[in-house]
Amino acid sequence: MTIPLRPPLSRRDWLVVATSVGLLVLLGRLVEGTEAPAFDRWLLQWLGINLPPLLRWLLVQVYRMSGVGFTASLVLLALVHLLRKRWWHDLRLLVVATAGILAIVDLWLKPLFDRARPLDRLLVVDGRSFPSGHAAGSIAFYLAMVAILSWHQPRLRRPLTIAALSWIALVWLSTLAARAHWPSDLLAGGAVGFAWLTICQASWRATRPQPERLPPSTGLPPS
Predict the structure, then answer these.
(1) What is the model's pTM?
(2) 46, 183 contact by CB (below 8 A)
(3) Statement: residue 100 has pLDDT above 70
(4) Which of 70, 113, 114, 152 could form an S-S bond across to 130 if both were Cys, CB 3.0 to 4.6 Å?
(5) What is the pLDDT of residue 95?
(6) Confidence of residue 146 (pLDDT cuts 50, 70, 90)
(7) Residue 138 CB neighbour total at 10 angstroms
């Protein structure tokens, strides 16, 4: 699968991309300056006050577990699975979606905005804060896998989608509980992830080989 200069986006795809880019630009303007927006400060403070200590500890462990090493292992297992199945077209989608989102966030957007993480985070996390690579990467990887597996097993689409979105929501909540990112970082990362995944999936759908269809049976015995 290649990403053409003009991906064959549907109207819905264009709406998703335009809305996501617009949200990223808006959030980028809001986070300019040295002081975080009031919403960011309020939500982190509210979670710090209202989360029970045990639940906060469990969420911090989820954040640790869902880090770079864990996600990289999942991506590697997915790639091995696609290689064994010889789903070359799906393999290209996963590689482009995951590698592309890392390059967009870590090599372009984070240096561009250069935002610091919250000072009172509960664990050691380095690097810039906006947009969240955790948020963008989870959208790109898990939802790409939902699309791939659902294409081969359509009846699994609903449970896979629910499971993926539930895990992504848990990862986002754990990120806030650990105070590793500002809420606006997650929203911006999610917007970037949705925009990039939409472009990748549009090209994947347009160039996806159709499944082989058996000829209709005539009901006659073979000659």
Answers:
(1) 0.85
(2) no
(3) yes
(4) 113
(5) 93
(6) very high
(7) 26
Residues whose CB falls within 8 Å of the CB of residue 207, separated by 6 or more in sequence, listed in order: 1, 2, 89
Q: Exposed, middle or buried by CB within 10 Å (0-12, 13-18, 19+), for 8? A: exposed
Give yes or no for a contact between 177 and 51, defined as CB atoms under 8 angstroms apart. Answer: yes
Burial, 201: exposed, middle or buried (Cβ in 10 Å; 0-12, 13-18, 19+)?
A: buried
**Is the peptide bond preceding residue 52 cis, with omega within 30 degrees of 0?**
no
* pLDDT value at residue 210: 61
Q: Domain of 169?
A: 53-207
pLDDT tens sequence across 81-99: 999 989 888 999 999 999 9
Distances (CA, A) of 172 to 18, 57, 182, 198, 221: 23, 15, 11, 20, 59
Lookup result for tokens 């005539």: 218
Q: Looking at the domain assignment, is residue 130 inside a domain?
A: yes
**Residue 112, in any domain of the structure:** yes
Segment 15-68, tens digit of pLDDT: 999 999 999 999 999 988 778 889 999 999 999 899 999 999 999 999 888 877
Whether 5 is covered by a domain: the verdict is: no
- Number of structural domains (the chain) is 1
Q: Does some domain include residue 79?
A: yes
- CA pair distance 168, 138, nearest whole angstrom: 6
